[in-house]
Specification:
This protein is α/β, with parallel strands linked by helices and about 280 residues long. It has one domain (about 10-205, about 235-255): TIM Barrel (Alpha-Beta Barrel). It contains ten helices and ten strands. It has helices at about 35-45, 60-70, 90-105, 125-140, 155-160, 185-190, 210-220, 225-235, 245-250, 260-270, and strands spanning about 10, 20, 25, 50, 75-80, 110-115, 150, 170-175, 195-200, 240. The longest helix is centred in the middle third of the chain and has 15 residues, at about 90-105. It starts with 9 loop residues before the first strand and ends in a 16-residue tail after the last helix.
């Protein structure tokens, strides 16, 4: 069983930085009241790890909610990401500055490359990736990002990055959940010291409809969402559940008072119908 007892317990990245073991996701959360309120409720519920991205369009709202909370800067962890139309050294630095301004921060805790092989630069991979990563390394060396990493990277993308990286990524954020385990990427990332963050740990809501998961959740007197978040923790992932409903945000924090049996963990791992169809070499963005 995981030793984690609360949302503020942490994984330790390969560079020694502590990262809270569950993060609050904001993908598909609209800027303005929706984003501000959901982040506010998340912080009130005990979250201290907020995940956003430039392309989500809600960095300003996320930053405002964090500022309004009054929580000291050293007590929360913020992640954002550079999106696909922005690559190369100069563009990466400029977009990082934009995200800092949007968030109202002097530094972020984690900065990620959102996708490895964007459509706009597909014929130039991995040359474009090289310049982007060099900028990420400089941002890290300057202390403006406490950690750097990648998102949606498969084994071949990591191999290409390792060819020239002076600093290996600290994190690989990929879609992970019951029935979508990406075993080869998970193994290779761990072998190289990267923490696995699990976005869409609820399958963008589709897993909540699963009768198989409902049956397992009932055994523990938990919701399917709580079951999936707990499963992610027991798998050694860092889940990033998302909600815009206050009650569900609060409910999703109650995942530290039960343990899923190994038989049920395996049944969830083998679940059918939740495979990710977004291969990063073919996404149309």
């Amino acid at each position: 069983m995981s030793d984690f007892k609360s949302l503020t317990d942490c994984y330790t990245l390969s560079n020694g930085v502590k990262i809270p073991c569950v993060g609050f996701g904001t993908w598909q959360t609209k800027s303005g009241d929706e984003a501000e309120n959901s982040v506010k409720w998340a912080l009130e519920s005990g979250y201290r790890h907020i995940d956003t991205a430039w392309i989500y369009g809600n960095e300003e709202s996320v930053g405002k909610a964090i500022k309004d909370s009054g929580i000291p800067r050293d007590q929360y962890f913020v992640t954002t990401k550079i999106f696909n139309r922005h690559r190369g050294y100069k563009d990466t630095i400029e977009m990082f500055e934009t995200s800092l301004k949007n968030l109202g921060l002097f530094y972020v805790d984690l900065y990620l490359i959102h996708w490895p092989n964007p459509l706009h630069f597909r014929n130039a991979f991995p040359r474009i990736l090289s310049g982007t990563w060099r900028a990420m390394e400089d941002i890290y060396k300057e202390g403006r990002a406490r950690a750097i990493g990648v998102s949606n990277f498969c084994v071949r993308h990591l191999d290409a990055l390792f060819e020239y990286a002076e600093i290996k990524p600290h994190v690989n954020q990929i879609r992970l959940g019951p029935g979508d385990t990406k075993d080869d990427v998970v193994y290779y990332s761990r072998k190289n010291g990267l923490l696995l963050e699990a976005y869409s740990p609820l399958g963008t809501g589709e897993l909540l409809k699963s009768p198989e998961l409902k049956e397992i959740a009932d055994k523990y007197n938990k919701s399917v969402a709580q079951l999936c978040i707990r499963w992610s923790i027991q798998m050694g992932f860092l889940p990033l559940p998302k909600s815009v409903t206050k009650e569900r945000i609060e409910e999703n924090t109650n995942v530290f008072d039960f343990e899923i049996s190994q038989d049920d963990v395996r049944a969830m791992w083998l679940l059918k119908g939740n495979a990710d169809t977004w291969h990063p070499d073919f996404v149309p963005w």
